[in-house]
What does this fold into?
Amino acid sequence: MQTLPILEIPILLASQSPRRSQLLLEVGFNVQVVEANYEEIVDPNLDVHLVAEKLAVEKANAYQGILDSHQVLCTADTIVLTGDLQILGKPKDILDAKAMLRKLSGTQHKVITGVCLRSGDKLISFSDTAIVTLTSMSDIEIDYYIDKFMPLDKAGAYGIQEWIGHCKISAINGSYLTIMGLPVHLIYENLGLHFLKRI
It folds into this structure.
């Protein structure tokens, strides 16, 4: 079966998100999940629109493994940015998740995913932004969603591929996959531009 040269690049994904690995696998990439121990610390002086990309770069730099000449390490970070520029990462607990969803209910917000691609001799980073309009949610709806889906591993306390995405998102301006946590179209593009061996 014919394949695409870009898809032959071995990807080391330093992320514990099953959604990110599944997205890359669905495209056809050869993906291996690896660990990069890193404590996320947000620089309060950094422009909030740059936070996700900066965290992705720091995750890549924290990786201690050895990359051979063909492998590319991929790291990513996703944040939700409210209309008043408050960063919502992963909720600390259920109460925090409820507070986040109450804040997002009936508003428009940004989802920014930063990505870093690193080989043995090259590092590039980029980010993508999508704008999401969330209709109003009652406390009963918020409780139902959190109880059923336990979104404590998701920025902003929701996953677009779940109930909220099906029932409460009325508009999206940008990439659906960026909201899921990985702008695959930009990864594919940048792998071709920067990491595909030219003959």
User: Anything to note?
Assistant: The longest strand covers residues 123-134. Residues 117 and 123 are 6 Å apart (CA to CA).
